[in-house]
């Protein structure tokens, strides 16, 4: 606990953004309330993304009512692996990642065998709103299971790592790689016990990590170093994230992406209230960066200029790198 306070104090000097500032100066200011459903419902996000030509995990089907639970078999069809999730869930709660079939049962990523009845029960829980924001009735989404790219094999434990980039008015401001651990059950959510690893925005090289609020440099399950890893296709991820501004219209978002071994970069979800732990993972506050973007935007506005996705990414990469470039070194 003491160490944590010390760390947040040290971060404050680095322009850390607290929850009140995030809500007042960013979420409320830049995110139009009426646009929230686009990001708060994963089915709507998916349909929007498909419309915009942005790649997402394929949707196998939707279950909306208890009566429709019977449709599960036909939705799954011949697929041996798939994911069931609450459309309005958050923080990894209520997500079931099925990796294989086992006779007439199913196997989760961690090897747990579950019956068809258990799956139906889980879907019924999703529908009643057990996992949704505000406890409202929800829909269950059944989708393609992502298989992470080989690059993550040594630094991740089961499950699918995801890449989170915070985007302000279309400008990436900070990035983080989230790695599932034995504890997080194949999910990359920090509060499930995943590791957050900072990412140098300029290059896509990983920095040190944070796990359960402690600083780490090795994965607790694999023992391998999490820093110094070059994420593949980094410019592609930056452009994908920056383009989500046009996709949803929200000015302050966390864009969650994955790298599938066959399908490449995919958008998993968008978040209108992205968490602040990304600052610990990067050992850097958000405020200076968001201010830099806001100052840049004010300048552009005075000149009547709006920048393209490529220009925005270039701006962020020029300013928000951690690793000194050759010119600086
Ligand atoms: N289609 C999928 N295939 C494999 N793993 C997934 C899939 N969807 C989600 N996950 C895992 O679950 C985590 C949480 O999923 P996400 O869709 O971001 O929901 P939440 O809003 O609960 O965070 C992801 O970070 C990933 O590790
Ligand atoms: Mg998520």
From TrEMBL:
Keywords: ATP-binding, Manganese, Nucleotide-binding
Domain of life according to the entry: Bacteria
Segments forming domain ATP-grasp: 46-306
Annotated GO MF terms: ATP binding; metal ion binding; ribosomal S6-glutamic acid ligase activity
Organism: Zestomonas carbonaria
Protein name from the UniProt record: ATP-grasp domain-containing protein
Keyword Transport attributed: no
GO cellular component, one term: cytoplasm
GO BP term, pick one: SOS response
Pfam families, A to Z: ATPgrasp_ST (PF14397)
């Amino acid at each position: 606990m003491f160490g944590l306070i010390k760390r947040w104090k040290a971060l404050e000097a680095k322009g850390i953004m607290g929850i009140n500032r995030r809500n007042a100066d960013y979420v409320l200011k830049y995110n139009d309330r009426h646009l929230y459903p686009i990001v708060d419902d994963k089915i709507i996000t998916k349909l929007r993304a498909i419309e915009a030509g942005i790649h997402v995990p394929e949707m196998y089907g939707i279950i909306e009512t208890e009566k429709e639970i019977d449709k599960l078999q036909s939705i799954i069809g011949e697929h041996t692996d798939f994911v069931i999730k609450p459309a309005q869930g958050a923080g990894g709660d209520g997500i079931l990642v099925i990796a294989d079939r086992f006779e007439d049962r199913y196997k989760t990523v961690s090897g747990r065998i579950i019956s068809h009845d258990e799956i139906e029960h889980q879907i019924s829980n999703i529908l009643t709103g057990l996992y949704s924001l505000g406890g409202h009735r929800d829909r269950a989404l059944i989708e393609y299971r992502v298989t992470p790219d080989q690059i993550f094999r040594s630094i991740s434990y089961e499950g699918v790592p995801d890449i989170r980039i915070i985007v302000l008015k279309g400008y990436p401001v900070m990035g983080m790689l989230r790695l599932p651990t034995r504890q997080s059950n194949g999910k990359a959510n920090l509060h499930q016990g995943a590791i957050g690893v900072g990412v140098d925005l300029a290059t896509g090289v990983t920095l040190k990590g944070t796990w359960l609020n402690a600083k780490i440099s090795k994965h607790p399950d694999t023992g391998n170093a999490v820093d110094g890893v070059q994420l593949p296709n980094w410019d592609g991820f930056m452009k994908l994230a920056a383009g989500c501004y046009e996709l949803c219209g929200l000015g302050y978002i966390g864009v969650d992406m994955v790298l599938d071994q066959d399908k490449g970069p995919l958008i998993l979800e968008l978040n209108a209230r992205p968490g602040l732990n990304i600052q610990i993972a990067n050992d850097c506050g958000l405020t200076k960066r968001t201010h830099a973007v806001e100052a840049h935007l004010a300048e552009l506005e005075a000149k009547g200029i709006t920048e393209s996705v490529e220009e925005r990414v270039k701006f962020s990469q020029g300013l928000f790198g951690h690793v000194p470039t050759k010119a600086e070194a």
